[in-house]
Amino acid sequence: MSGELQFHTSHGHYWASYSVENRRPDLAGFAVSSTSVYVCLLEGSTGATPSEEMNGTGNLMDFLDEPFPDVGTYEDFHTIDWLREKSRDTDRHRKITTKSKESYWELIKSLLDAWSGWVVMLLIGMLTGTLAGVIDLAVDWMTDLKEGVCLSALYYSREQCCWTSNETTFEDRDKCPQWQKWAELMTGHSEGAGAYVLNYFLYVLWALLFSFLAVSLVRVFAPYACGSGIPEIKTILSGFIIRGYLGKWTLLIKTVTLVLAVSSGLSLGKEGPLVHVACCCGNLFCSLFSKYSKNEGKRREVHRLVLFYVEYHTPWYMAELVPFILLGVFGGLWGALFIRGNIAWCRRRKTTLLGKYPVLEVIVITGITAVLAFPNPYTRRSTSELISELFNDCGALESSQLCDYVNNPNMSRPVDDIPDRPAGPGVYSALWQLALALIFKIVITIFTFGMKIPSGLFIPSMAVGAIAGRIVGIAVEQMAYHHHDWIIFKNWCRPGADCVTPGLYAMVGAAACLGGVTRMTVSLVVIMFELTGGLEYIVPLMAAAVTSKWVADAFGKEGIYESHIQLNGYPYLDVRDEFTHRTLATDVMRPRRSEPPLAVLTQDSTTVEDVETLIKDTDYNGFPVVVSRESERLIGFVQRRELTVAIKTARQKQDGVVSSSVVYFTEDNPQVAEACDPQPLKLRRILNLSPFTVTDHTPMETVVDIFRKLGLRQCLVTRSGRLLGIITKKDVLRHMAQMMNQDPESIMFN
Asked: Of 691, 683, 640, whose CA–CA distance to 84 is shortest?
């Protein structure tokens, strides 16, 4: 992901923005760990009414902020207006600053308003960290529950159980009397065909139970809790409204089902869904503060920790850049294959009967995964444990199969500087098991991601790359040991030296595959550094990440999240997309020749009944205001919500306002001709006198850029001050899809 992460401060507000070219929020990256994620801090400017700075008028009517039934700030599946939101926040801050000079109480209130951002951030961090920790512990326990149980404490995982045991030996550090597999507990036998079959059966049964509970809870209680949530969050942060997506119920169900889904053993991770969980936490706490409860603009801050700590004792050499780049090529090919395969499967799910049976799909995929995963020790364990072992450097105390090397009995070197050694039988056995695990992970992840359960992609992608990288690393290591006189090794690898670190290759491969799927580069290297703490390996990571992006981009520019945004038809304008077609605003604006004329209001000749009828018969977000229908000279733009609230409030609180009352948007006070005439209704204060406009000959390349950078909801098209039409964000997206020979009706929401 290209761009730059910047931190800003203004009027006591703090926020982070990604990309200097885009002034509205965009998701800055998804660096996550097992106990922390990127947290959405709802910090910024929103509201429902234009400020005096935008309107050039006096203070806003207070009744516009009063709630009315069926009237919200924005409707569901609509786009917010970033210009109005910023203006609203500026107006709010000016009002607080002015009042703070009137009394000590107002000064205290202004200080509390300034501190509320830090309070919200603290609460978000505490709740997010707590939930992430609970999820981590629960996943470890339930993953081990598929294989056995701790007799001393049922709520202990195998690792915790053996920690408390005084009978654990160094050779059998993963075994202890307190931890028993199900066959041993039920039959008293831990070895033999019968015990293996029983353990196999119960492993599959537990996996099916966990996945069934996960998909059932999502389907019945919180449909928005499915998937990773990142495509939707990127769309929400760009200004789109999806009511309930960050709600309390979604938070609860997502947290519970995330544990169940990961524990089932499916090829998915919890890091992506943790972003969704964190954003739900942010939305929860921000609703408690008036400063944020009316805000739709979101800004982000980070919390981070280390997930896979690595410590390598051998530097990398320039000659190793060749296999690192080859791993980048593999990562790019894997990313392109995964995106095409997964999108094809998800499209098939949407257009066939498969989509009508999400529970059955989850059960079938879980059953296949469990049946194929159990025989292989590298697919049976949790994916996080697998990655940790693949990243690990082989020391003298390691008992893994991957560290089964032939040792020289005369070796007397320090334990952290072990020279390259010939591979033993355990290493060769691990290699073919890893090869099978690689094929399994590549195939099953394509069908797993996107099911109706919480599912992340970071960990599965890293697992694919780590397996491939470890295999390549062992191959290079053995080549260097047996052929150290080759020209590629002769200058830097002496006999008896510790030349190659296979764990480093696993880390580079993980970065390459993650980059191939997400198309991130610089931010990916930062993520890998934060997850592993390996600062000195930035160059190999960057080489692999950039190569994987180049290779993957040759097959398609979109990453997996952008592809799912397109698949779901979300109105998201990616700042990286280029629009080079030579079309004009007049080619895109509405109304077209075959369509009815644009719905407008006049400044002094429209009655309350006319306005109410227009609101009832249309679903537009707002209406242009013109001098008259004959001249169509543009005066301003009024939002549907403000118009509805103003008329309802006037009917309730202002005497003489009836259906035949004339609505005025003029600056001068309207005159009542006769005493029997109905009382006029002046609504100039809700009129936006400076709506964003373009001429009919403005190139669409410029219009698209304006919509991206300013986050516009709509802009009006004029010629010499005369209103011709309107262009909405949905119109822009449809036109872009049409120019790329895609179905313009695939844009589902406005």
From this structure: 691
Q: Is the distance from CB of 589 to CB of 727 less than 8 angstroms?
A: yes
At 74, the amino acid letter reads Y
- Reference 385, options 396, 400, 370; nearest CA is 400
| Coil/strand/helix, residue 706 | helix
**Tokens encoding 647:** 């008329």
Which residues in 232-257 are b (16+ Cβ under 10 Å) and which e? bbbbbbbbbbbeebbbeebbebbbbb
Distance of CA 402 to the CA centre of its chain: 35
Most confident of 378-392, 403-417, 484-498: 378-392
Q: Tell me the CA distances in angstroms from 45 to 80, 91, 715, one per residue in order.
A: 11, 10, 20
Mean residue pLDDT of the chain comes to 80
Q: Give CA–CA dist 85/73, Å, rounded.
A: 11
Is pLDDT at 347 greater than 70 in this prediction?
A: yes
Measured from the Cβ of residue 316, the count of other Cβ atoms closer than 10 Å reads 18
- The residue assigned the tokens 């990916």 is 524
User: Is 51's pLDDT higher than 60?
Assistant: no
Q: How many angstroms separate the Cα of 586 from the Cα of each of 3, 578, 724, 735, 738?
A: 32, 20, 9, 12, 16
What is the average per-residue pLDDT within 502-506?
A: 90
Q: Quote the radius of gyration of the chain (alpha carbons, Å).
A: 31
Is 598:629 a contact under the CB 8 Å cutoff? Answer: no
Lowest mean pLDDT among 2-16, 344-358, 442-456, 550-564: 2-16
**HEC-encoded secondary structure of 386-436:** HHHHHHCCCCCCCCCHHHCECCCCCCCCCCCCCCCCCECHHHHHHHHHHHH
**pTM greater than 0.85:** no
Residue 487: left if φ>0, alpha if ψ -120 to 50, beta else—which one?
Answer: alpha
Give helix 271-286 / helix 458-482 axis angle, nearest 10°: 140
326 bridge partner residues: none
Express each pLDDT in 64-90 by its tens digit. 334 433 434 666 677 777 777 777 777
The pLDDT-based confidence of 202 (bands split at 50, 70, 90) is very high
